[in-house]
Amino acid sequence: MLQLSLFNDIEEEKRESVGEQVALIVDGNNVLNRAYYVSALNPNNIMKSPDGRYTNGVLGFLKMILKYKDELKATHLAVVFDEGRGFRQDLFQEYKGTRGKQPDELKEQFPLLRSLLKGIGIPVFSHKQYEADDRATC
């Protein structure tokens, strides 16, 4: 298994091989946030669809995951999104309490991205108790 961290490139944690199959599981919240903010640094990069919806984060997201899929020669790809704050919020009420409000221009891209991924056949997962970067140890 490889854990892909966009902060530290690719960390090889443990590699288990089943033939030539490689699965890439993407933290959708992390990658969309990064794609949005990288492009939002330059106001000329803020893209909109013809109907006025912001799309710069979605475009950056797709470019990033397709690049990693190609580099890793992944045969399987799935995206996992956070759905709420899960068990951490129950344990500590101030969990992520210091974060600022997410810009509307970014917030509106999450449903667009989910719809697009489903439309092109990339499985999308989420669970109310877990965040996308949580992992189980085997």
Describe the global form: globular
Secondary-structure content class: alpha/beta
> Which stretches are low in confidence, meaning pLDDT under 50 for 5 or more residues running?
1-15
**Can you tell me the CATH class of the domain at 20-84 and 105-128?**
Alpha Beta
Number of helices: 5
Largest sheet: 3 strands, parallel
User: Total number of β-strand segments?
Assistant: 5
The CATH architecture of the domain at 20-84 and 105-128 can be given as 3-Layer(aba) Sandwich
Order of helices and strands: EEEHHEHHHE
Proportion in helices: 25-40%
What does this structure look like?
The protein is α/β, with parallel strands linked by helices. The chain is built from 5 helices and 5 strands. The protein has helices at residues 28-40, 56-72, 86-91, 104-107, 109-119; strands spanning 3-4, 10-11, 23-27, 76-82, 124-127. The protein has a 3-stranded parallel sheet with strand order 3-4-5. It is globular. Mean pLDDT is 79; it is low at 1-15.
The gist of it:
With 138 residues, the protein is α/β, with parallel strands linked by helices.
Lay out the secondary structure.
Blueprint (H helix, E strand, L loop, with lengths): L2 E2 L5 E2 L11 E5 H13 L15 H17 L3 E7 L3 H6 L12 H4 L1 H11 L4 E4 L11
Parallel strand pairs: 3-4, 4-5
Antiparallel strand pairs: 1-2
Helix pairs in contact: 1-2
Defining traits:
globular; 5 strands; 37% helix; three-stranded parallel beta sheet; single chain; 5 helices; 138 residues; two-stranded antiparallel sheet; nuclease; 14% strand; 5'-flap endonuclease activity; Rossmann fold; FEN; alpha/beta; disordered N terminus
